Amino acid sequence: MEIITLREDYIKLGQALKAAALVEDGVEAKLVIKDGCVTVNGEVDTRRGRKLYDGDVVCYNGNEIQIKK
């Protein structure tokens, strides 16, 4: 499980995927999110700008990202 430590109050979903190196760029992030391949806290979310806060868990392609403050 990858852990992303927040510098601000939140990180956007697309940015989190890039920060964890699960996608190469924002375009790829946009596509995989739009296609419903990403879950946030167990539910599919198709909003690239979804704000992630401390405790959120993102899953994509068998990889998990945990958001920590």
Automatic annotation (TrEMBL):
Gene3D superfamilies: RNA-binding S4 domain (3.10.290.10). It holds the Pfam family S4_2. Transmembrane segments: none annotated. It comes from the Bacteria. GO terms for molecular function: RNA binding. Keywords: RNA-binding. InterPro entries: S4_RNA-bd_sf. This is RNA-binding S4 domain-containing protein. It comes from Fusicatenibacter saccharivorans. The lineage of its organism: Bacteria, Bacillati, Bacillota, Clostridia, Lachnospirales.
